[in-house]
Design goal:
Elements (H helix, E strand, L loop, with lengths): L2 E6 L3 H12 L4 E7 L2 H11 L3 E4 L8 H14 L6 E6 L4 H10 L3 E4 L4 H12 L4 E2 L1 H17 L12 H11 L4 H8 L3 H15 L4 H10 L10
Parallel strand pairs: 1-2, 1-3, 3-4, 4-5, 5-6
Helix pairs in contact: 2-3, 3-4, 6-10, 7-9, 7-10, 8-9
Length: 226
């Protein structure tokens, strides 16, 4: 079954370029396009895509507000598991973190390679989250500053088993489920179960927020990124 993608960007050439890249990949189908956030919300309801590739800076409703509303709608209707992949030039870090807080599942530079774009779409479609290396560094920097200001550890960490804490640490380093499985000599299905339990126990939306949590609470430290 194909991954259904909605492209949201106010520049026609950008959307055309992304469409060309994604539709050259078997198993990905671009089902629609939108030029702003309001149109994106309408298209999500009508087309029910698996992944929305979302620009941030657009006229009218921007990508941040659109992401917030799409995620809120998804949480209210869990049977529709749409994920939002934010494609940004990182002009402003405050946009990046606002998108993170809004519930975006992935972040990627617009000048990333076609292979990275395809990978990101597939990762988000599977219900996982993806951070580009540059984004990970920004997240770590912000989380480290937050920890310096408030060095206390979240009490929810005590609910994790030793193995779950180890999985969280590797997850924060940017490891995929397959890479964590190889590192710990466990099956990938077992790791997926551990990740789900970590997110549930910590009350976190996805892997992106788990990365932030891990660095804010000292489970991972700068320099750990793979």
């Amino acid at each position: 079954m194909s991954v259904r993608v909605l492209l949201v960007d106010d520049h026609d050439l950008v959307r055309t370029g992304f469409r060309t890249i994604l539709e050259s990949e078997p198993g990905i189908d671009v089902v629609g396009e939108a030029r702003d956030g309001a149109e994106a919300i309408t298209q999500v309801a009508a087309l029910r895509p698996d992944v929305v590739c979302m620009d941030v800076q657009m006229p009218g409703m921007d990508g941040l507000e659109a992401t917030r509303r799409i995620v809120a709608g998804r949480d209210a209707r869990p049977e529709h598991s749409v994920g939002v992949l934010v494609l940004t030039t990182f002009d402003r870090d405050d946009y990046l973190f606002a998108a993170l807080d809004a519930g975006a599942s992935g972040f990627l530079l617009k000048n990333a390679s076609p292979e990275k774009l395809v990978e990101a779409v597939l990762v988000v479609a599977q219900g996982d989250a993806l951070l580009a290396p540059d984004v990970t560094r920004r997240v770590i920097e912000r989380a480290t500053v937050a920890r310096e200001g408030s060095p206390s550890v979240d009490e929810r960490l005590a609910d994790l088993t030793e193995r779950e804490t180890e999985v969280l640490r590797l997850l924060a380093r940017g490891f995929s489920n397959a890479e964590i499985a190889r590192e710990l000599w466990l099956g990938e299905a077992t790791i997926k179960t551990h990740v789900s339990k970590v997110l549930l126990k910590l009350g976190l939306r996805d892997r992106v927020h788990a990365v932030v949590f891990a660095y804010e609470n000292g489970v991972a430290v700068p320099g750990d990124v793979a």
